[in-house]
Amino acid sequence: MSKYTTYQPCKRPGGIGNIMSLVLNCVRYAIAAGASITLPLIEKRGQDLTALKNGVQEPMSYFFDDAFFRGVMALNCPQMTVLEDISQIREFGNAHVTDSLRPSELHADNGRLDMHTSEFQHALSGWLNFEPSLHHPAIIRLSLGLFEWPISEESVEFYATFGKLLRFREDVHQLANDILRTIQRQSSDNGRFLGAHLRTEADIKGLWIDYNDQRDAYFAKALSMTFKTIYLASGDLIDSARLKTEAAKRNIKVLTKRDLLSRANLRKLTSMTWDQQGLVDYLVLKNSTFFMGSSPSSFAFALAYSRHLNIADESYPFPEDSLSKIIGEDVNFFRDGMWPVQG
């Protein structure tokens, strides 16, 4: 057991793209500190996206296969202890709980810590106002920003594989596989389909790329690559219906997860929360022939990054390559701090 334990409740609300970043950054900082970790808690979002916080926290299994996470950590980081919660710390009664720590606000010897993360353990020791021990451990609650760890400091191999720590729940995989089999079975185009993430929900209206621009870009790509089918992921049912109607005029079929699941699996889907259903979309879109999304959606960028790893020819630029295209402004903090996750 380490003399440090990091505790990250993931209390910043957001969708799967944000949560994946927070969890992986927490683990990466714990590795840098030589600390034990607790399984993260995930703040559950409300169904109304204009009010994201509802104060309800769910265990890691709300999104992810926590047994898989534990197994991968035990295999690759056997010296790190993974705890269910902080009460499992052996000397919990003697532990010192620190103030909330924002790692990027610490200062390394030569500048901001988030640019010199190899010095995190040294900077952490200086930040603590006491010397922890196995009998008097420190419990450090991390307060992380999104996409905070500078992935440019990592080797290509580590960067490409670290996100494999996070595997989605098994029931999510089962539903996504059912959808992909149905697409393949019903297809008249050898299973080819364009995957599209339509981000027009109420929380970003007037702030991000609008419906018309997304629609035009998706239709243009479908027509240029002769796709007959678009698999659509969207939380806006009205705009989804609009896109279906307008696509039909161009002889393009737009399908959603609800169109493609068996009755039994549709019942399983409807028992899930809005965000859990989004995990199903993530896996289906990951397997699309070509994927399109819009900036600055972390969901879309996470998908595009995970697909980008499958391209051997590094001459393809990002955020548009031979497998994906993100329309809108390229956002540097995604480039600098997003781990690719296969789900």
UniProtKB/TrEMBL annotation:
InterPro entries: GDP-Fuc_O-FucTrfase (IPR019378). The keyword Transferase applies. GO terms for biological process: fucose metabolic process. It comes from Taphrina deformans (strain PYCC 5710 / ATCC 11124 / CBS 356.35 / IMI 108563 / JCM 9778 / NBRC 8474) (Peach leaf curl fungus). Coiled coil: none annotated. The keyword Transferase applies. Pfam families: O-FucT. Keywords: Carbohydrate metabolism, Fucose metabolism, Transferase. Signal peptide: none annotated. This is L-Fucosyltransferase. GO terms for molecular function: transferase activity.
